[in-house]
């Protein structure tokens, strides 16, 4: 089978290209536009953002001639311009998801409700959808995947995003028969549950990033959500609520991720976790029950065993997204998707004391952070998923800082799209047989 690079070159030789529609022109989206402009057989033909001027700047920085950029909110005008080889910018995501000439949609908004709506409409329009929006994926991804399968299109997470990079190691190790003990990622900064847009303002400005995004990294939500996506794809679970989050070097990982009785930290195998000290990499801890395999691993200088570490020291985020676009287009395959269904849940925890009438403000804000639980543990306490939190959610009883927020603690002023999809997903799940790991949830610890 030809590699994606050869397939893209061949496509271009035929005078064709994969037409990409991008929604969200922030840091991730802008980088992806520039990267794709350097590729064969692929082009971002349409981009939507609330600020069309950002789209124009992104196209210009990618080397696209200003006369080839058309800003429009009209479908017929946009489609005609694409047929003429031009690129489109618009303020309306619906225009991009409905363009007949677009083959693959990429959601780079980072907003759970918006991402869920984009994926839903992309699938309705028979387009492959690549999610650079893990928050939406862990909330309603199982439903969206089921819908995409039924529609004959691909629903997938992105290569280069940490869950996709972890999945690359998992697929490799699983395919050649290793026992996989743990899957994980590095965390770039110390865990600070109280981080908010004000406390990270200076750092965000220096990095040219959104304060809410930086706060979601520091308060741990992003890490929880990313490993939630890996759990739903593999069936691996957090060993304890919130995961262990130990500190260590790459060399130390095989000994740290041992069962407790062997001097490690684990109560179970087949877990997801994160480590302070190995960022920006991702890892898989593997082992074998075969003497000759251990002999070979020792000869290859992979360590003394019984555990070994596979480590990928980088992940190029949206710069790798084109690989998932091409894989969906050519092979009709996902890079990472919730194949195991809802195995874990990133639940909302109060970032400060909350009182009746308070509005929750979402991921990376002032009111909540995320904590990863098994799905069974989450269901046992009726916990509110972090992806359902937005400014339409109002607190109805006093909630202490550090307390898990439950469905019974809140009410909605208006039902958003992601809430509707989650309700459909819950109904679908209730009508199907539970998976083994959900039938016997691990003991709930806070």
From TrEMBL:
Sequence ranges assigned to domain SAF in this UniProt record: 345-411
Composition bias, Low complexity: 425-435
InterPro entries documented for this protein: Asp/hSer_DH_NAD-bd (IPR005106), DRL_cat (IPR048423), NAD(P)-bd_dom_sf (IPR036291), SAF (IPR013974)
Region of interest called Disordered, as start-end residue ranges on this chain: 425-446
PANTHER family, per database record: SAF DOMAIN PROTEIN (PTHR37850:SF2), STRU PROTEIN (PTHR37850)
Name recorded for this polypeptide: Predicted homoserine dehydrogenase, contains C-terminal SAF domain
């Amino acid at each position: 089978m030809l590699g994606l690079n050869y397939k893209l070159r061949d496509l271009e030789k035929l005078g064709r290209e994969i037409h990409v529609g991008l929604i969200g022109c922030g840091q991730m989206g802008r980088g992806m536009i520039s990267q794709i402009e350097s590729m064969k057989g692929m082009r971002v033909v349409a981009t939507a953002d609330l600020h069309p001027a950002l789209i124009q700047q992104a196209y210009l920085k990618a080397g696209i001639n200003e006369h080839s950029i058309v800003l429009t909110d009209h479908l017929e005008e946009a489609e005609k311009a694409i047929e003429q080889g031009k690129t489109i910018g618009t303020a309306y995501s619906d225009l991009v998801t409905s363009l007949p000439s677009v083959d693959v949609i990429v959601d780079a908004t980072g907003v759970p409700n918006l991402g869920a709506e984009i994926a839903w409409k992309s699938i309705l329009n028979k387009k492959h959808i690549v999610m650079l929006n893990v928050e939406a994926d862990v909330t309603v991804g199982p439903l969206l995947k089921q819908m995409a399968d039924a529609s004959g299109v691909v629903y997938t997470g992105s290569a280069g995003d940490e869950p996709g990079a972890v999945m690359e190691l998992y697929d490799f190790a699983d395919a050649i028969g290793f026992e996989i003990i743990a899957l994980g990622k590095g965390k770039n900064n110390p865990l600070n549950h109280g981080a908010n847009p004000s406390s990270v303002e200076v750092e965000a400005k220096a990095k040219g990033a959104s304060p809410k995004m930086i706060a979601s990294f520091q308060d741990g939500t992003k890490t929880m959500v990313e490993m939630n996506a890996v759990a739903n794809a593999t069936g691996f679970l957090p060993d304890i609520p919130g995961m262990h989050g130990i500190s260590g070097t790459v060399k130390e990982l095989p000994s740290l991720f041992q069962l407790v009785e062997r001097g490690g930290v684990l109560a179970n195998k087949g877990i997801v976790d994160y480590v302070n000290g190995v960022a920006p990499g991702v890892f898989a801890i593997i082992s074998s029950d075969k003497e000759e395999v251990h002999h070979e691993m020792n000869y290859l200088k992979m360590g003394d065993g019984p555990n070994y570490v596979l480590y990928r020291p980088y992940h190029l985020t949206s710069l790798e997204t084109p690989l998932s676009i091409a894989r969906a287009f050519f092979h009709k395959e996902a890079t990472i998707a919730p194949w195991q269904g809802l195995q874990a849940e990133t639940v909302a925890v109060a970032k400060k004391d909350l009182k009746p009438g308070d509005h929750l403000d979402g991921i990376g804000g002032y009111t909540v952070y995320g904590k990863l639980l098994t799905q069974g543990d989450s269901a046992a306490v009726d916990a509110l998923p972090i992806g359902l939190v937005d400014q339409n959610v109002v607190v109805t009883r006093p909630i202490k800082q550090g307390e898990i927020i439950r469905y019974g603690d809140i009410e909605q002023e208006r039902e958003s799209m992601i809430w509707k999809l989650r309700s459909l997903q819950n109904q679908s799940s209730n009508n199907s047989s539970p998976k083994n790991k959900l039938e016997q949830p691990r003991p709930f610890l806070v």
